[in-house]
Write a structure and sequence with these properties.
Elements lengths: L4 E2 L1 E2 L4 E2 H4 L5 H8 L9 H10 L4 E2 L10
Antiparallel strand pairs: 1-4, 2-3
Bound molecules: FE2/S2 (inorganic) cluster.
């Protein structure tokens, strides 16, 4: 079991805590470029805006809603 947590966009070096300051996914993406490079963080950031949480299991089952 991997207990590594996902809590940032690695490509633009922004934590989900920082990205949460924006109004929504589209605003955060436009302002920072997050979720626009490898896009690996995209479902996590969408889940972050939906749940208010800023740290996720790498295989959080809720991610399937945002893929
Ligand atoms: S980790 Fe966010 S775009 Fe690559």
């Amino acid at each position: 079991m991997c207990d590594e947590k996902v809590n940032r966009c690695e490509c633009v070096h922004k934590t989900f805590e920082q990205l949460k300051a924006y109004a929504d996914f589209d605003t955060a993406q436009a302002a920072t470029g997050c979720a626009a490079e490898c896009e690996g963080c995209t479902p996590y950031i969408k889940l972050m805006f939906a749940s208010g949480e800023t740290e996720f299991d790498i295989e959080d089952p809720r991610l399937s809603l945002y893929e």
